[in-house]
Structure formats: C-alpha cells, structure tokens
Amino acid sequence: xxxxxxxxxxxxxxxxxxxxxxxxxxxxxxxxxxxxxxxxxxxxxxxxxxxxxxxxxxxxxxxxxxxxxxxxxxxxxxxxxxxxxxxxxxxxxxxxxxxxxxxxxxxxxxxxxxxxxxxxxxxxxxxxxxxxxxxxxxxxxxxxxxxxxxxxxxxxxxxxxxxxxxxxxxxxxxxxxxxxxxxxxxxxxxxxxxxxxxxxxxxxxxxxxxxxxxxxxxxxxxxxxxxxxxxxxxxxxxxxxxxxxxxxxxxxxxxxxxxxxxxxxxxxxxxxxxxxxxxxxxxxxxxxxxxxxxxxxxxxxxxxxxxxxxxxxxxxxxxxxxxxxxxxxxxxxxxxxxxxxxxxxxxxxxxxxxxxxxxxxxxxxxxxxxxxxxxxxxxxxxxxxxxxxxxxxxxxxxxxxxxx
Length: 404
Ligand SMILES: *Cc1c(COP(=O)(O)O)cnc(C)c1O
Prior knowledge:
By secondary structure, the chain is of the alpha/beta class. It is 41% helix and 17% strand.
C-alpha cells in the first residue's frame, strides 16, 4: 500500500511555508529531500560512534568501520553487484565520473574513440574532454531527435573497433527521457568498449541491477536518493577497477610507501584515499533501505501517475511546450511558455511557494539543440502529489496573465 500521507509525514521540510504558502518542492532533479530516518541517522552517528575508520583498534573506530562497511554491503545488494569491493564511496556523480575518466585519460591512446551523447549533463561531458585532450583520443557524440530520443542508428554508425568507452546517462536530467542503455551496453560490448552509466537520475527512480545491465560502471549521487550531499557511489567491474590507475593519492589507498615507490591497496581502498564522508556513507545505506521499504515498483508506479497527470495538465495550457516527449520518461517535465523567459516563470511561482528549476540544467548542448535559453523543469519524487501539480498549473496560469 502506497500511503502518501504517511510518506509525506516523514519529510519535515515539506511541512513548512515558503513565501507564506505551503512549500511545493518540484526541484528533486537537483536534490531530493531527506526523511526523518536519514536525519536521525546523521545525528546518531555523530552522537554515538563518531571516529575515523579503518585505522584504530579502539572500539568507536571499529563500530564506525563496521557501520561503514555494512552500508557498502547494503548498497552492493541493492545494485546486485557481485562484490562489495566493486562499490566505491565517492562524494557524488561528478566525482565518480571524473575518477573513471581521469583513469581512462591515462589508458587511452591517440586515435582511440570515446562516445558520449548530446543529452549529457556537463559532468559527463567535461571529464571526457579532459581525458581526450590528455590522450589524443577523439570524442564522438550520439545526437538526439525532436522528441529527445537518442538516435540509435547514429550510435551504431559511431561504434568502431577504436571505441574504448561509451558514457551516457540512464535518464536525462534536463528532459527526463529514459535512454536505451541495455541496447547501448550490448552494442558497445560487441566492439570491446567499456560502458559508464551516469545514473544520477536513474538511481532515484529505478531499482538498478548492474549484473542484468552488464554495465562496466554505474555512478550516482546520494543526495538525489534522499541521502546527504557529499555522498555517492561508483560501481565498477573488478577487472576495470584493477586496470584503472588510482585517482587520489594519500592515506588509506596505499599498501606500502617509500620515497622511491608506493604500492597501492586493494579494492575498494585503492580509490578511497583520505578520510571519507563516514556519516554520509553510513546514512546513504539508511536512505537506500528507506526507499527499498517503500519499494521501487511502488515508487515507479506512483511517479508514473504523477508524470502522466502533470503532462496532461501542463499540455492543456495554451502556448506551453514540453521538451522530451518520449514514452519512456522518468518523473521530469521540462517546458517553456511561448514568449516568456523560463526565469520569469520560476521567479513568479517561487512567490507562490513552488520550487522549480529554471535554466540550462547543466546541459547546455540540449538547450542549443532546441535553440532556447533554458527551460522550466518540474521534477517529482514519490512524496509529491497531484494536488501539488494542480497548484503549479494554477500558478503558471497566473504567471502567464501577469506577464502577458
Ligand atoms: C545531478 C547530476 C549530475 C551531477 O551530480 P552531482 O551530485 O552534482 O555530482 C550528473 N549527471 C546527471 C544526469 C545529474 O542529474
């Protein structure tokens, strides 16, 4: 049973008023809100067991280490990863992609090819530009069509024996389109390329099975799955994590250090230099447990209802155009109103307590494709409601009257 009132009661921030109106939080694509269990777990960690991990023999250090490693196993199970050492704690998606791309920057040769897509977030573009600049590899881009679908014929044509890496997002943060990653992974593997999936918008809405997908890397941010900022996960297949050079040097990632030579620790520690966000890593496991208790099937069914309702209500507004019209979408509606700048809509609806995102959503190539300065983006989580969508629709109508 999906009890929306009970769910909303667990998110203290949703109870507040903003600008004198009940908060309607539709900026979940930027960051999700935190349930009470997550807030409590942060406090409990610092109140009861705060200590540095993997180092001390003392009791608190062991308790903190155990909690941190238990969280890693939780996330391993959640992703159906074969091994816990394939689950690396990071500070977020950006860090995870940079770790992988920086490593490939050292493994790639001149003339090798890296494929990304026109639908990527800047954090899945720029690190690959760095890698290509350093190695002399060539960056290729899968285009998308008017509906926001990646062109799979173009992708097939881009693949070659020189393709070493394909890096695409699971779900576009700017349009909400779900990409055909199973197809992309299968095709890329046929030419021997590694595949990185930017799951920043996938992990909050889908139960991901990395073995079923057979991706080589899956990356996501904790803060978009109800955990704190500064947390994230990089799943990588053992063979690739062994092949990639370390990213950060420092404590924890070494086996032996002399001034002549340093040997590296095994996985996952090779990639976890320095004191991590210990509380955050533990609490990420709590957030994942929380979402699994609600159930990703129930979450998906409910969010699909919200998405369909919002799409229908918004489409009925004269002059409103939705970008990303595919059948296969996650809970994001990105739109503009003819003759009105997205920023003006965002500002007016904020006065009515509604948080939406306006701008290019860190995906400028998408805006360039559509030849627009940006969009208004309403992105939903399982704690949003149809009543909130009604409030947004009324606010937009009011904004249109005020601005025209
Ligand atoms: C949010 C997001 C990122 C970046 O995540 P950070 O948490 O800022 O590191 C990357 N890709 C997509 C698709 C995103 O939505």
